[in-house]
Inverse folding.
């Protein structure tokens, strides 16, 4: 009997030891989700109250400081470009031939009528750089075991004061995320799916964003192609490139 | 007897002149004040109707639920056909399309990059169609501070304070950044034709006025509009006129199951205007009541003075056997006659003053130029003569004279016949 108890205790101890800490989980998530650079082709389908529309774009991102996006369709949006350098954002509109800086409260506005704000698009920082995490439980989502983590902001310049993330225990990818204001109000919810192995890392190819303050059925962001660690020419990240 | 009393009033001026003057002045003030305050209230309501609410407003049900946010993604579509039907169904109402929109106005520097920008509230209205009355309705030409009215497509007016803040002005380009009807990004270049001052802090802080077609083009709202305002031909909002219009509209157009079906709201059902509408209605009664009380007090005193002066006369009349009740009655008859005469004179003068105020108005633009009020005040305040002004004066005029006389006349019943001769001897 004693032997059985000792064996059971040992098994439990090993299991307990095997459970990673919140910081370790977040680190693993960052490794999957962040890259030195990436080129993403995507389709963003915005489900409005009256109709849905799809916008296609290609984005080039280097670290968390530089990003360039060009919208490819529909015709009304075609040729619109966005450039992010550090904490500044510019939009180029071919119909007006203007480069417009987006700043202040405009950063909280919706991008192309979607459930994503400019702020959401701009913040490419790693979770470990801006949040402290706490493991609060385990849940199952669509048959996948997840860790539930609650994150509190550690920096002041952040759009969401806290987050709750459901991390796939096997693939270290978020499957669901809820973003909260300082008051504790739920602002946004995102559901990740179609987790695919790309260049040795797991990555969600479909993310459905829902701005809880807006009516409508949310915005589906579908990655049609993603490449990591590419040679991206430096000139892309300049205002001159916007007009080209 | 009436002839006899009239003769007495004409011959003994001291008996009738003071009460007549008091009644005439009181009625004149009551009639004029009623017309003046009614005019101000109505002007405020009408100004709001012209800018914002119409006398009735047609929107989609979904839009009306979030009207304060001007959600153009929920705007009316096929507006030309809807307006054509509305004109057929309600020929006594002028129907005008409006688009309210929010966005950012961006001012470029010499390289075309952002020099300054600020949030703006915009109104798209028909500025160029032949016969369109919209510019006059919003008093835009008179509100111009710099530049001129837009006369070609792509030209806009900015509020003066806003344009100063952005360091831009007439003949300069600005870019509107907003949302299209289907939620996309709208970026559109305009040229500033002129700047205007509305005399309303909220609007002066950041308003863009653009032609409806330009806004439709910029926001991808082809043949769509957020709102269709209906303005009565009479030029004034009346609940009694609006109610049957709304009923007829609901019977024909409203569909509870379709959130994009058009709905109609009366002016009083928008922007908390019911208080103003009710106030404008009850103001006449409030003023009449105040004047009844004030004039009754004055005429009571006048009656008391008259009673003192006519102390001897009444004494003799009692002594020769006239009934106290009869004397009291004749005095009331006299007061009714004075009341009528005073009211006719007072109403005539009051209406005359009101007419002058209605026709020429009082220019208060110097005072409202830097006003910080939340309500829309017109530059010229005017009185408004309505049918009740012709008879409302009779209520305070006659009632207060009779009340004053009745109160003062009570003294007659306190006279003791036994002491009359003693009093007369002295």
């Amino acid at each position: 009997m004693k032997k059985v108890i000792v064996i059971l205790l040992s098994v439990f101890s090993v299991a307990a030891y095997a459970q990673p800490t919140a910081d370790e989980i977040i680190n693993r998530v960052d490794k999957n989700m962040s890259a030195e650079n990436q080129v993403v082709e995507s389709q963003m389908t915005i489900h409005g109250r009256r109709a849905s529309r799809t916008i296609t774009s290609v984005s080039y991102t280097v670290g968390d400081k530089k990003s360039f996006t060009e919208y490819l369709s529909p015709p009304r949006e075609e040729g619109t470009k966005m450039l992010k350098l550090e904490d500044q954002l510019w939009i180029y509109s071919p119909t007006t031939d203007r480069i417009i800086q987006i700043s202040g409260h405009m950063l909280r506005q919706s991008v192309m009528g979607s459930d994503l704000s400019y702020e959401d698009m701009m913040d490419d920082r790693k979770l470990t750089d801006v949040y402290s995490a706490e493991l609060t439980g385990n849940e199952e989502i669509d048959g996948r075991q997840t860790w539930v983590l609650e994150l509190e902001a550690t920096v002041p310049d952040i759009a969401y004061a806290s987050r709750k993330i459901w991390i796939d225990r096997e693939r270290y990818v978020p499957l669901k995320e809820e973003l909260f204001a300082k008051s504790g109000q739920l602002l946004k919810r995102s559901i990740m799916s179609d987790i695919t192995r790309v260049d040795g890392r797991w990555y969600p190819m479909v993310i459905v964003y829902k701005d809880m303050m807006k009516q409508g059925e949310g915005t589906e962001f579908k990655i049609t192609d993603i490449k990591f660690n590419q040679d991206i020419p430096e000139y892309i990240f300049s205002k001159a490139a916007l007009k080209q | 007897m009436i002839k006899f009393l009239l003769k007495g009033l004409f011959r003994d001026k001291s008996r009738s002149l003071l009460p007549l003057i008091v009644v005439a002045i009181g009625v004149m003030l009551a009639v004029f004040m009623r017309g003046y305050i009614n005019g101000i209230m109505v002007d405020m309501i009408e100004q709001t109707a012209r800018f914002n609410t119409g006398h009735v407003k047609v929107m989609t049900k979904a839009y009306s639920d979030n009207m304060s946010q001007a959600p153009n993604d929920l705007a009316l579509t096929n507006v030309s056909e809807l307006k054509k039907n509305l004109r057929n169904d309600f020929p006594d109402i002028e129907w005008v399309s409006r688009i309210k929109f929010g966005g950012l106005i961006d001012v470029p520097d010499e390289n075309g990059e952002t020099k300054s920008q600020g949030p703006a509230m915009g109104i798209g209205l028909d500025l160029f169609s032949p016969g369109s009355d919209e510019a006059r309705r919003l008093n835009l030409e008179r509100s111009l501070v710099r530049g001129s009215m837009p006369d070609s497509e792509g030209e806009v007016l900015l509020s003066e304070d806003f344009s100063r803040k952005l360091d831009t002005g007439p003949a300069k380009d600005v870019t509107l950044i907003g949302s299209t009807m289907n939620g996309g990004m709208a970026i559109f270049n305009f040229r500033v034709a002129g700047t205007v001052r509305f005399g309303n802090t909220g609007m002066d802080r950041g308003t863009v006025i653009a032609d409806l077609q330009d806004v439709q083009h910029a926001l991808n709202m082809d043949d769509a509009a957020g709102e269709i305002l209906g303005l009565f031909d009479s030029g004034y909002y009346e609940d009694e006129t609006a109610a049957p219009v709304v009923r007829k509209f609901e019977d024909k157009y409203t569909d509870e199951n379709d959130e994009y079906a058009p709905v109609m709201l009366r002016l009083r059902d928008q922007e908390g205007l019911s208080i103003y509408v009710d106030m404008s209605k009850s103001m006449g009664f409030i003023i009449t009541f105040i004047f009844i009380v004030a004039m009754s007090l004055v005429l009571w005193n006048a009656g008391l003075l008259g009673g003192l002066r006519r102390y001897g006369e009444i004494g003799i009349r009692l002594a020769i056997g006239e009934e106290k009740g009869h004397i009291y009655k004749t005095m009331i008859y006299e007061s009714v006659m004075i009341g009528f005469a005073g009211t006719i004179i007072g109403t005539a003068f009051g209406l005359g003053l009101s007419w002058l105020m209605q026709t020429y108005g009082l220019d208060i633009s110097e005072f409202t130029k830097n006003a910080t009020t939340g309500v829309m005040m017109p530059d010229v305040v005017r009185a408004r003569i309505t049918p009740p002004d012709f008879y409302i004066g009779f209520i305070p005029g006659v009632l207060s004279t009779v009340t004053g006389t009745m109160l003062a006349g009570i003294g007659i019943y306190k006279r003791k016949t036994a002491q009359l001769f003693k009093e007369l001897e002295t």
